[in-house]
Design a protein that fits this description.
With about 140 residues, the protein is mainly α. Helix content is about 80%, strand content about 0%. The chain has 8 helices and no strands. Helix 1 runs antiparallel to helix 2. The radius of gyration is 16 Å and the shape is globular.
């Protein structure tokens, strides 16, 4: 109960901070992620779409939006947003994250060749993803 209470308190605090600082893209992203984690995917999608209207080059927002669509089974939308995340990526971490999620999407769609290619790109930018990729392959297959 204490952990649940702490988590809910953190959720409420994050939402309050996001409401108070609407121009802070990182806090808006964190608030959207927490909404999604608490099952409010529609609210998270709306927040992310608003965030991307203000910051159309925000790779992490595209990544999160693509991840929500992947989770929901909207593969075409997931692919669109994950590709936008990759296009907007400016750092190795952003590229690795986008390629990792594109690899996951390919695995879900049973396209091993594309998954292998995306995972190779992700590993190029972040070799530490190797274990995560192996666990993902085991989970999906």
């Amino acid at each position: 109960d204490k952990e649940r209470e702490w988590l809910y308190s953190h959720f409420k605090t994050t939402q309050s901070i996001a409401a108070a600082i609407p121009d802070d893209r990182k806090i808006q992203l964190r608030a959207a992620i927490m909404l999604a984690n608490f099952g409010s995917n529609d609210d998270a999608v709306r927040k992310l779409e608003q965030l991307l209207q203000q910051h159309p080059d925000f790779a992490d927002a595209y990544l999160t939006l693509g991840s929500i669509h992947l989770y929901r089974g909207n593969m075409d939308q997931a692919a669109q947003y994950l590709q936008k995340s990759l296009s907007a990526a400016r750092t190795e971490k952003e590229r690795a994250s986008a390629n990792f999620k594109l690899g996951e999407l390919a695995l879900v769609q049973h396209d091993s060749a594309v998954a292998d290619s995306r995972f190779a790109e992700a590993l190029h930018d972040n070799p530490k993803l190797d274990v995560s990729i192996q666990k993902l392959r085991e989970t999906i297959h």
